[in-house]
Amino acid sequence: MSHLDFLAEGNICGQTLLRLVSRGSAIIAELLRLTDHIPSILLIDETSNTNASNTSSPSSSFSTAITVDPTMLKYLPILYDFRYLKTPEMFDKQLNTSIELSELDDEFYETHEVSIEISIAMILIVSF
Description:
Helix content: 40-55%
Number of helices: 6
Shape: elongated
Number of domains: 2
Low-confidence stretches: 48-64
Mean pLDDT: 77
Distance between the termini: 33 Å
Number of strands: 0
């Protein structure tokens, strides 16, 4: 049996693997394309007051110099890092008990709705 038989139309295993690899490649290509459209405010490392040039930042592979519109800095109080995953109730309570933060959250969503929807769609695609 040669390696060409594995990719033959009648070989279910080979065809399944080929579909799986092509879907994976399409997802990776879309993720790479989307990295060019990440709002710069999401690439800021708030804890160290640096931007993506900080090598400890997970987003440092996307860009080495980030220019952030100073008006976008107002959204930092509602943009959480991975600490949110440990205690989401605490962050949600903070957001829901403050009218100011709630309005800021709504404003951020309206301003970046397309980016948010695409990100959610990509997360759902990758998670299945």
